[in-house]
Structures are given as C-alpha cells and as structure tokens.
Amino acid sequence: MADAAPRLRNLAEQLLGAPLPVRIRAWDGSEDGPPGAPALFVRNRRALRRILFKPGELGLARAWVAGDLDVEGDLYETLDQMSDLIWERADDAARPSLRDPAVRAAVRELLTLAGPVLLPPAPPREEVGRRGGPLHTKVRDRQAISHHYDVGNDFYELVLGPSMVYSCAYWESPDATLEDAQRDKLELICRKLDLRPGARLLDVGCGWGSMAIHAAREHGVHVVGVTLSREQAAYARKRIADEGLTDRVEIRVQDYRDVRDGPYDAISSIGMAEHVGAVQYLGYATDLYALLKPGGRLLNHQIGRRPVRDEEGYSVDEFIDAYVFPDGELAPLGRTVSLLEEAGFEVRDVESLREHYAHTLRRWVTNLEAAWPRAQRMVSPGRARVWRLYMAASALAFERNRIGVNQVLAVRTPERGESGLPLRSRDWN
C-alpha cells in the first residue's frame, strides 16, 4: 500500500506543531494535502535520512541541492506558504520538544520511513567543506569569494544579463528593463559620490567592472577596482579594454586591506561589505576612512537584516553559509551606521532599496529558469538548484521585510565641518 505521503504529512505537522500548507508527494506515488496547493516531492528515503542526521535548515538544504527534495508547482508560492513555519516559528518557544512523548514517537516513525540508517549521506559536493581557524583572515576570505564567484563568468552572464551587476537595481517602474534599472543604480551612486572629471574613485569589490566602467565613461573619473576573484578581474579587464578605458581604469586582484595608494576622492562599496564580518567591520570602515581625502565620500551599499532583541548584532544563515556565501554575515542597519561613525565618518544619508532588491532577484530567477538546462550544464545541477532556491527565498525575505538593503552615504568631514554636500542633498547635484 502506498501510504508514505500521508504518514509524512502527519509527522511533519506533529514535529512542526502546525498544519502543513502544501501537499506532500512521496517516492511511492502517494500524495496527501490541500487540493490545488503546490507540492513538496520527496523523491526518495535519502531525503529523510538527510533531515534525520541534520535536522533543520541544513538538512533540508542538502536534500534540495542533491535533488532528493523538490517542489512541484510555483516555487515562490511554495516558499511563501512555508515561510510562516520556516521564519515566524523559528524562535517560537511553544514548538514541540523532544521531551514530548508524542514528538519522540513521531521521530521513531520517521526513522522507520527513512529505512535502514547506518551512516549519514554525504553532503552534496556543492557544499563548502568544514572550515577551522579564525574568521575573515585574508586567506579564508579569498577562499570564500572564490567559492561563490569563480564558478564561470558565462553562468553569471546568464543570470545577471548584459549589465553584469550583482547587486540590486534601481527601478523607476516594475516594467523597466533590468539593464536600464542597473544603469540607473550606477548613475545614482555616481551622483551621490559627486564624481567629477579627473577625480579618483576606489571601487571596493568591483565585481565584473560595471561600476568602474560607468564612472569612467560617464563621469570622466580615474578608477581603481579591487576584487579577490581572478575570474572577475579577467572579465572586467577585457570589458575595459573593449570600452577603450584602460587609461582610466585599473583592476587589481587585491584585498581591500592591502590598498595603500590613497587618498581617493570617493569610494564605492557595492554589495561587498556583507563579506567583511563582525570581527573585521570596524577595521574595514577605518581602512576606507584612511583612504579618503578630507571631504571625500563613501557610498556603502549593503544588505542588512532586521534587529532582534538581546542579540549580538550579526547573523549567519546555515544554507547561505554552506552553499552560497561562506562566512557572510548580516548586521542591522543601525550597527553598520554606528561602526562607520566610530571609524570617523559623518553619515549624511541613508536610503533603503528593499523593494528594489526583491524585484531584481525575481528578474534574476526568471533569467535562470528561462535557460535552466544550459545553466545546469554550465555549473552543475546542484549549484543551479542552490542559486534558484537562494534567489527566490531572498526575494521573499526582502518582500516580507526580513532583510533590507541600504545605501549609506558617509563623508570624511574636515575638521572645520565643511561636508561639501548641498543643503538639499537628495537632489544629488
């Protein structure tokens, strides 16, 4: 008798302490759940073994990446339906405990469904291996960046589109093209930095060179871009040569902590500071402050999360840490602003682009899904699945105000207090 799905559904509801809003389809062909709802497809018993050996988010992630667990139907709808269980109940003290006899019985039933369990299934090869030693050393940061960015520039072209900008776009309307919205974001940053011909710009975490090219071509500045990714640097240098901008733009494979050729008139840091980490953030801010001339501006574009009471200030997501951005840490906006000020900066403007990032991520997911077979060939089926899940889940996290993204404009204000900003700074002129 094919009965795995109803048994799994009953077990999930006991363990989660709430009704399951999606259907379950199991490897034996059985199905159970609300009619018309999207379905979680448990392809094999190995998915259960992964969850048993690593309960919680990481076990689910391993099952997803390996293809043992899948979604049938709209991925966004499924994640949205599950989000209350995944997010809102994460810290719920009323959740079932293993001290509850009924919960222990449910776990025993899950062990029976999982079949003979001798050893834990090996993690998918896309998972970062066990790491020891201190966080955010130069060597460890270089390895973390390589894991995420050195997977093939052709794959990033497929996802990001021609702009090759890997941070949220700036949408005039939802109907704008991704390329126009990314151009508008780069132009917004240039205006906030008040870039003028002949000025020196340091672009920290320069990616594939899009900001450097835009600033040099449209504003006549001289740019130094630094990245830890050799693949990014090679791609950026070719683009710069094709644009005829080699006399204005230099791309270095270099840690921001090793930049010593200041002062610069302006610094852009776009989607890079999430990699810096709690232990290094004050040093990061202090280093950038020292690299700016008096009156110079910093534009720090960074993802942040909502603060949680009685928490240290930074958070690490198990799935993201294991498969996407190793050692990445998100801090609340207030923590970021405080550390920039502690380093000496005067923070002059903060602009939230939360909804803009949700829209950008949905466009990236559309690009990925439109070329799904090719994407899997470019990297691996598992890595393509990582990207699809993390971008779709992140879009919902932005939409639900779980995380946000902020442009913080800060100035190395001279001792006499002349910031150089106009009285009505939002005009950005």
Report on the structure:
Residues 155-414 form the Polyketide synthase-like methyltransferase domain. Keywords: Lipid metabolism, Methyltransferase, S-adenosyl-L-methionine, Transferase. This is Methyltransferase domain-containing protein. Belongs to the CFA/CMAS family. GO terms for molecular function: methyltransferase activity. The protein is of the alpha/beta class and 429 residues long. The protein starts with a helix and ends in an 18-residue tail after the last strand. It folds into 2 domains: 4-114, no CATH class; 138-427, Rossmann fold (3-Layer(aba) Sandwich). It is built from 16 helices and 11 strands. A 7-stranded mixed beta sheet has the order 7-6-5-8-9-11-10. A 4-stranded mixed beta sheet has the order 2-1-3-4. Helix content is 44%, strand content 16%. The longest helix has 19 residues, at 381-399. The chain is elongated, with a radius of gyration of 24 Å.
Q: How are the secondary structure elements laid out?
A:
Elements: H1 4-16, E1 23-26, E2 31-32, E3 39-42, H2 45-53, H3 57-66, E4 69-72, H4 75-88, H5 101-114, H6 138-149, H7 153-160, H8 178-193, E5 200-204, H9 210-219, E6 222-227, H10 230-242, E7 249-253, E8 264-270, H11 281-291, E9 292-305, H12 318-324, H13 333-342, E10 346-352, H14 354-370, H15 372-378, H16 381-399, E11 403-411
Parallel strand pairs: 1-3, 5-6, 5-8, 6-7, 8-9
Antiparallel strand pairs: 1-2, 3-4, 9-11, 10-11
Helix pairs in contact: 1-5, 2-3, 2-5, 3-16, 4-16, 8-9, 11-13, 12-16, 14-16, 15-16
